[in-house]
């Protein structure tokens, strides 16, 4: 692999960008996501998550079992806003999204 | 909508769990995001090895048809083209058909969402013509489209080997299977023999240096030992294995553990296939990557255990059935890869340790 190899297809993030995020102190998938947008594309990290964790594991010399999973949020699949909002005023969008608000203790 | 048992995923695990549960008299609903049931079995034209005793040897596509037919005769609500996208604060499951989101309340849930294929990055891997072995299999066996003329397969696990053989039989010139280790990962001797007969070369200690092409893959350079090898191909199939789909478990507050032999991260579960969330059970490849026999048996164990907790069968009978199923699971799973069953036993042990610990802490 060379430095320009794309790792996150959806957001077009390459190996160099991920390695530089790691050098700036990133050590989880979510750290890298916040710095580079890697994992924020339409597939929501389904394709790049393992590739990135592999790179973290190699760069930081830690085993894959110590690199946690990305935080997964609702809606789990691309969903039209209309499908979430419904027609009623007491719409389900509030409850669906309310649940995905950060929990206490979560990093923001 | 309301139901006693809600099954997410209509692949072999979900279908089998549904028919066992319905036979126990449990009110059952099964949902799948696809337009038809059958999951990833629908393009598996190979003969399935090591099925449980109660199934006759057959191809994947035949088994899918058989299970769907069986379900048709049972009182099970089927929701196709519906995707589970989240949960409500009161615990109900949110399912959408693309137009609206429907809350579903269920006593018990089985998550049988299967597995996703792993990617592999190399320069040129984003070119059209590079796809997973599963994608090539869908094109060939479900859509009857040849995904390329000259193919290279990356990876030598059983799934990759099966697809290599299916492509070759479907008229694709399979120019090689490359494996970065020094020996084959897969162990299905029949498939290996047939690939040898067809004359597909195997390259060990090899990786892809780069794939080239204008607008699509045309050429690939391999690192083969110390040499560089060039090949003209228009199809590269990545067969780097599978990992359990986890999103629904996180949304349902299930704890995870790591077992490489089962595909990496997965939910912890008990001998009943119950996760750390007492109303959520797991079955199939979502409970760890394995063979079809074990996929069906984990589904049956989950269904029997739910029947027990909903008092559709007494504890003694459920216990007896569960023991027999675990025995068969150990036998079937150890036959192909010993470490798979070992890893599964570790997962169950970790579930037990977590439960003991929370009892000590009085939680
Ligand atoms: C493309 C592909 C090809 C494969 N081919 C082979 C092969 O040739 N040989 C082999 O040994 N293994 C193969 N596998 C592995 C496969 O995982 C197993 O063979 C088997 O199908 C797993 O059964 P399952 O019931 O656990 O999951 P699946 O068969 O994957 O079924 C899961 C179902 O859940 C549905 N689903 C997932 N998430 C949601 C959601 N949020 N809401 C609603 N529905 C959802 C999916 O649509 C799917 O129908 C393949 C996998 C893939 C992805
Ligand atoms: S590949 Fe990274 S978000 Fe899709």
UniProtKB/TrEMBL annotation, chain A:
Domain SoxA A3: 7-86
Keyword annotations: Oxidoreductase
Signal sequence residues: none
PANTHER family: ANAEROBIC GLYCEROL-3-PHOSPHATE DEHYDROGENASE SUBUNIT B (PTHR42949)
Protein name, as recorded: (2Fe-2S)-binding protein
Organism in which the protein naturally occurs: Tigheibacillus jepli
Automatic annotation (TrEMBL), chain B:
Record keyword Oxidoreductase present: yes
SUPFAM superfamilies per record: FAD/NAD(P)-binding domain (SSF51905)
InterPro entries per the UniProt record, alphabetical: FAD/NAD-bd_sf (IPR036188), FAD/NAD-binding_dom (IPR023753), Metab_Enz_Cyan_OpOx_G3PDH (IPR051691)
Pfam families with a match to the protein in the record: Pyr_redox_2
Entry superkingdom: Bacteria
Keywords: Oxidoreductase
Domain FAD/NAD(P)-binding per the UniProt entry, residue ranges: 4-292
Name listed for the protein in its UniProt record: FAD-dependent oxidoreductase
Source species of the chain: Tigheibacillus jepli
